[in-house]
Amino acid sequence: MLRDRLNEEMKAAMKARDEVRLSAIRLVRSSVKNREIEARRELSEQEVTEVVSSLVKQRRESIRMFGEAGRTDLVEKEERELQVLLGFLPQQLTREEIGGLVASAIAETGAQGVKDMGRVMKALMPHVAGRADGSLVSAIVKEQLA
């Protein structure tokens, strides 16, 4: 289970004195705890994966913004944290795999054009959650519907 793996990885990072890894894991654990407090229950494995996924998305956005501002020191830090976070997500889908899932979702929903994108995304997201970047999935759906 991901929660147990986070605890074990945190202990290992403490022993190895790996500050970047420890910081990233603590961030995940606190985000999960905050989400549990909001929900007033323990999160499922899927929900923990969603928390990690949202943190990955935040890191990617930070990297982009720091890069535009010329802050290479912060870009490097965020990239190291991103690599740690990606280690807690399931194997990421390739563009071709996403394309295949999009094609089957389009067939399943009977989508005719870009106006049906919402239906396709709704059918597709449970299959790709945590395994693909949402903006990439969205772009592939647009390509195939156009």
UniProtKB/TrEMBL annotation:
<dbReference type="InterPro" id="IPR003789">
    <property type="entry name" value="Asn/Gln_tRNA_amidoTrase-B-like"/>
</dbReference>
<protein>
    <submittedName>
        <fullName>Uncharacterized protein YqeY</fullName>
    </submittedName>
</protein>
<dbReference type="InterPro" id="IPR023168">
    <property type="entry name" value="GatB_Yqey_C_2"/>
</dbReference>
<dbReference type="Pfam" id="PF09424">
    <property type="entry name" value="YqeY"/>
</dbReference>
<dbReference type="GO" id="GO:0016884">
    <property type="term" value="F:carbon-nitrogen ligase activity, with glutamine as amido-N-donor"/>
</dbReference>
<dbReference type="InterPro" id="IPR042184">
    <property type="entry name" value="YqeY/Aim41_N"/>
</dbReference>
<dbReference type="InterPro" id="IPR019004">
    <property type="entry name" value="YqeY/Aim41"/>
</dbReference>
